[in-house]
Design a protein that fits this description.
Blueprint (H helix, E strand, L loop, with lengths): L39 E6 L3 E7 L2 E2 L32 H5 L1 H8 L12 H20 L3 E6 L12 H5 L1
Parallel strand pairs: 1-4
Antiparallel strand pairs: 1-2, 2-3
Length: 164
């Protein structure tokens, strides 16, 4: 169990019951970018891609935790790399996780140059995930924590235009 992991770039601490789902109860209220919201999604990008959902102020559980990182998405034009997910190949996790980036580029994400074209495919995959979350869940906000690169800020210039 992860508790009070400092996972937001603004330094807020978010309580977790696993690496995907934000735990919120009477003593646990969202901090940072989730504060004041009743409906939001939290995406973690690291060794995998996880999605936690809060709706009407409560975590969404179902019969097991959501596996939003395994959603199959529209691929970036010209991208035919098969992906790195052992279950689905080119799902979001298979295209945007740390192991996927390393498999595609030969370099760990923290060492990949900022101008590498691999970042464009990562941004596209995450934007497609965000697009699906907006269309299916209509969250007030989508929080994305990239945990494989704590040493530098990652910017995705094409993210917003790809998301629509």
């Amino acid at each position: 169990m992860w508790t009070s992991q400092d996972s937001l770039p603004i330094g807020s601490q978010m309580p977790w019951d696993d690496d995907r789902r934000h735990r919120r109860g009477p003593r646990r209220r969202p901090l940072g970018a989730g504060k004041g919201l009743t409906d939001y999604a939290y995406v973690t990008v690291g060794t995998g891609v996880g999605v936690g959902l809060i709706a009407a102020g409560k975590p969404v559980f179902g019969w097991h935790h959501p596996e939003g990182g395994h959603i199959r998405i529209a691929r970036a034009p010209g991208d035919d790399w098969p992906g790195n997910c052992r279950f689905h190949g080119a799902c979001v996790e298979g295209l945007a996780s740390g192991p996927a980036i390393k498999a595609r580029s030969g370099t760990p994400p923290a060492n990949l140059p900022a101008d590498s074209p691999v970042w464009d495919t990562v941004a596209h995959a995450l934007a497609q995930l965000a697009h699906n979350l907006v269309l299916t869940l209509a969250p007030q906000r989508i929080l994305i924590a990239v945990v494989w690169s704590a040493s530098r800020l990652i910017s995705f210039p094409g993210f917003a235009s790809t998301c629509v």
